[in-house]
Structure prediction request, 132 residues.
Amino acid sequence: MRLEQSRVYLSVATLALVAGLTGCTKLKARDSLNKGVAAFKQAQYQEAVEYFKRSIELDPEFLTARLYLATAYMSQYVPGSESPDNLKVAQEAHDEFRRVLERDPNNTIAIASIASLYFHQKKFDEAEEWYR
Prediction:
């Protein structure tokens, strides 16, 4: 009887620990998001990207962090510049906005942002498709 009771207590303790750690991880993800937003507001986009990535690492389901990450990449894009770094940041923005749409197909911010990126890249046919 005592062995059975001990197992129950151990199971309950384990569940409580796991639940606590999960909650702690989500708090850390939220903290990283907040730090990223602060950096973003100061136009420190690369720093913001790192915070948003950290937030997503901590909570892969945190869609708000992914949307901010995509927006931070997009904010670094310079229309008209064909440098490899600039094209890479545009692609990163596209990729992240599409990841948002995988989970939230009607996210109007992601849809409009993809259209805007295509427009600024002078890919007008693609932009028009996304604006529809």
In short: The radius of gyration is 20 Å. Residues 15-19 have pLDDT under 50 and may be disordered.
